[in-house]
Structure formats: structure tokens, C-alpha cells
Amino acid sequence: MGKRGPGKDAGNKVSKTIYTDVLVIGSGIAGATAAMRIADDPNMNVTVLTVNKDPRESGTYYAQGGIIDRGPNDSAELLAEDLLRAGAYYNNPEAVRVLAEKGPRLLDEVLHKRLGVEFSETANDNLEYIREAAHSTERILHVADATGRAIEEKAILALEKYPNIQLLTEHTAVDLLTPAHHSTDPLAIYAPPSCVGAYVLDQRSGEVLTYLARYTVLASGGLGQIFLHTTNPATSRGDGLSMAYRAGARVINAEYVQFHPTAFYAKDAPRFLISEAVRGDGGRLVNEKGEPFMQKYSPEWKDLAPRDVVARSIHQEMLHTHVPCVYLDLKSYIPEEEIRHRFPNILKSCLEHGVDITQELIPVVPAAHYFCGGVWVDTHGRSSLRNLYAVGEVSCTGVHGANRLGSASLLEGLVWGWRTAKDILRKSRKEEAPIKGDDIPDWQDVENAQVADPALIRQDMTTIKNIMWNYVGLIRSQQRLERAINDLYHLDQEIIEFYRARRMTDDLIGLRNMAQAALIVARAAWENKISRGCHYREN
Is residue 11 predicted with pLDDT exceeding 60? Predict the structure, then answer.
């Protein structure tokens, strides 16, 4: 059997090495912002990869609620305090300061003026600022209930206009390239840890290509798909986190997985997001009798409590009443015309599954929504590996602390995407050396590799999802976490052996990364005995 991985002797094979100044892995708001800003320099060539067929498909695209700006009665200090309070004061103060002070200006400069995103307005043609849970004032800009979609569509259109950006769809990063792991020079192990690109699967041809880059930007999104219920798109499998971890990058705060309180619940229906803005506009969480219950769990905030509190409250209410879901009541608290105006996409999605939210209660359950941990980065997006940057949900800037404040993620992606690009441009002007990678071999496929049985892949994915949901979900305990780690470790070993002997596919790569990401989260949760934010330990 041949060896899965880089070949030490490429023989007479034609090289499949591609050179680029900057390799961006992911096309959401963070990756797109970084790519666009870097490509402003016509001397820089940028390659943007996305695993999806449609480059708009990303976590950004599905963000409903909105993006933080500076509201009429707002200030950087007030926003910083709200971020800190929601994050259980576990946030990185420097990162919070950067977001609160720089964010609104960049929103205006990039989203308003550069991309032309048309945010919702009041009857007087002023920007409409709304308030969401755990915010102390109105400061959220939105585009009805499809803010992320509006931003992402504009961002991709902008990328496609740059002659020095190559946007490649259906390309899956397999592993980050580090000289310490991949160089044919054994002495490379003594050099400072660095990243020089990635092995990348072209899904259409089945070939694994070698992308060598001066700078690599991870913008691959989150990991919600490792859980049974999630609002995340199908490719949020923890790919970037797992690749960075294998490459030796520092990973922090992996136990902090935020569960959105309200995802649509129906048999055989996707768990699509029901925005927090619904509760911000007056919607109430009720039990099957139509009775509000949040006052029992959070007397101060009630339905506008931080996400982790609301999610656990729903979980406990479901356990106490032995029901599979609770409900959101809009019809009793929000006028029908306002529902149709503010939440047209939620209305449409629910109608597709037989629920008219202007007349009926919406069945909801908590679902894995946002990863607050990730690849450690500084305020310029730099990871612990030289020339590897991480932006967006795959990164951990410390802005969110132990729990994310609603609508903060789009702004974080924008700010860190921009700051990463500025740092890369600054470094590139000082470092004129060409890309070097002669000692990185081409990928060598397994000889006579079998095609992976999709039934086996799906079963392993389902097993991971159930382990994580039942043992590493909303409420954790020592016993559950130990069971999870034991089960995941053995499953991971089986998946690694399975992976090494099969022909490379996107699903196979995803399975390997899901197992790795699940172990990272479970081990971090086991090590942290303190309940804080969205990490809650029973004992």
C-alpha cells in the first residue's frame, strides 16, 4: 500500500505546485475582506479557496440578525462593557478595545461606502438601529432578517472584479504545509515554526495540489456540524481548527461553544436559525401551554438574557416538562405587519415547513451556533506559526470571551480581516524574498486506494454528532466528558486508519476533521472545571 501524504520522491511526475503570494482559505466576510484589501496592491496575487460550489455559501451568508455599529445613544465604552459582560469578563481587553473603537469606522468605510450594502432604514430614511439580547442600547444594523446574505453577496461580487484574485470553488484544504512536518530537509525541524501554504483537493479532478504561499490566511469558519443540532452550514466541520492544530498552532478556549437558543424544530426539517432579533422585538419564549417561562430562570433579563442563559433555560424547561421543544410566540406580542416587514425570510422558511408565524407558535430547540474559541491570534490576526493568520470564527481573538454578544461576529470578521490584510501588506513590502518551496514535495496518493463507502462516513459523522450533543453539549459533567473523550479517541484512531487507505474526497477530509475538532473541544471542556459563560459544568 502506498503512503498517504507528501511523497519524498516525486519521480517523473509533473509537479502540481501552484505559487501565490497569499492563500486565503474561506470566502466569508473575514476571508473576503482580507483578500479584497490585500488585492488593492496590484503587485500581490491572492488565491481564495472555498470548499463549496457557490462561493457565497458560508457562515456569513446565514447570519440573520445584524452587525454592530455605533447607535444614536452609544459609545465605544458602552459597547466594550456589553461585550465584557456577555463574555463573563473572560475577554481579551485589548481585542475588545480594538473592536469597539475601530469597528464602526470600518463598517462605514468597507460595507457602506466600498461594498454598498443597503441596511434597513426607518420611515424617515435614517438607518434603523435595533437592540438585541444583552445589548444595553440600540446599535444593530440589519438588512431585514438576512444581513449576512446581503453582505456576502456584495463581498463576492467585489472579489470577482479583482484581476489579481483567483477565486476557486470546490477546493478543499487537506493540511497546512509546515517545513517542520513536510520539508525533505531534515534540518527544517530546527527552524522557527512557520506555514508555507497548504495541500488542496480539487474536488472535480480528484487531484491534491500543492499551494505554496508567502502568507496563509485561515478563514474557514466554525465547527457546529460536530453537534447533532446546529444552525451552521454543512461545511462547518472544524476544518481550519483541525488543520491548524495538526500543524502545531496554538489553540485556546475550545470549550466555549455557544448554543443559539432558538433553532426551528420539526421532524426531518433543517435546524435553521430563528434570530435573536425576534425576542429583541418583543417575541416571548413559551411552553406548550403558551405560558412564558424565562422569568423563572432569569428574573432580571427574562427573554433578553445572554444566549448561554437562554439556551440552558430552554434545555432545563424541556427536561422538566418532558417535551422535545419549546415555542416562540410572536403573534401575541408583535403586530402581524411588523412580523412580515421585519422577518420575511423567517416567515418564508417556517411556512415551507407548515408554520405560519403570524398565527402560530414557532417550535424551537437550542442548537450549536458559534465557536468562541479557536486558533489563537493577536490583534493583527497573527497565529503562533510564522506567516499563518486566522480570521473569523476559526480564530480566537478574545473578543467574545466565554460567550459571544449577539451580532458581534460579523464585525469581528470585518475588523480582523482588514487588520490581517494591513499586516500582510506591511510585511510583504519589507520581505521581498520570492516564495520558496522546493523542499516541499508533491502529494503522493495511496496506490490502488479504494473509494470510501459513503454509508460508513455518514455513520461515523452521526456517531460524532450524538456523542458531542449528549456528552459535550449544553450541560456537561465529569462523567459525560470522560465518556466522550474515550469514545472519540477510539473512533478517531479508526477514522485515521480508514482515511489513510482511501481515495481522497471532501467527505473523507471532513470526517477526519470532525473527529479531530470534537476531541479538541471535549478535552478542553474536561480540563476546565469552572463553569463560565457557555461552558457549563454540573459538578
Answer: no
